[in-house]
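Person: At home tonight, work slowly through the protein below, taking as long as you need, and write a paragraph about the fold.
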Amino acid sequence: MSDDLSTAIVTLDKDATPGIVERRLASGEDALDILEDCRRGMTIVGNKFQEGEYYLAELILAAELFKEAVALLDPHLAGVQGSAPSGKIVLATMRGDIHDLGKNILATLLRVHAFEVHDLGVNVEPELLLEKVREVEPQLVGFSSLITASFESMKEAIGLLQDAGLRSDIKILLGGGVTSPELRNYLGADFQTLDAAAGVNFCVEAVGSVSHDG
């Protein structure tokens, strides 16, 4: 059953999760369908964390299970990607926050959609983000946040992009449990979501509109 994989991740079953992935791959199942079950499991884990049922330790373990599953899926996902990237995005969890669960899920899903993903990691300084944007010239920048301590560094980073004359060329999206439409307005971002799949849809549409305009 497909639900077995989601359940294994939600119950933090480190022994069962890789075996289920390998078994389903061996049976010829589409890697994208398997990845979707992993994502569904991580969404449930994220909800449990937000509701206080799971704590940071459970979140970290679930993230490790997800990464292990993605490592097994990656060679099979590569086959569905185009040779040329459909777009470029820089992702970061900014200074003050070290959570990367949602960011990692988004990065994986975007790579499946043939995006060139530049993931700066966690606790990122605004100046480093500006430097990376200048280097790779992405169409999108994504910020992930699970605690409010990163709000000001996100604001600072967007300010640096504006001062450098780069902001108008970039769509900025926010994700993570503490983000909201109010935060989007405060930061002057273009999009905010709690759902990685919605974030992917925004990125695909944004790059499509840029290509069309160009």
Notes: The beta strands are 87-92, 115-119, 140-144, 171-175, 191-193.
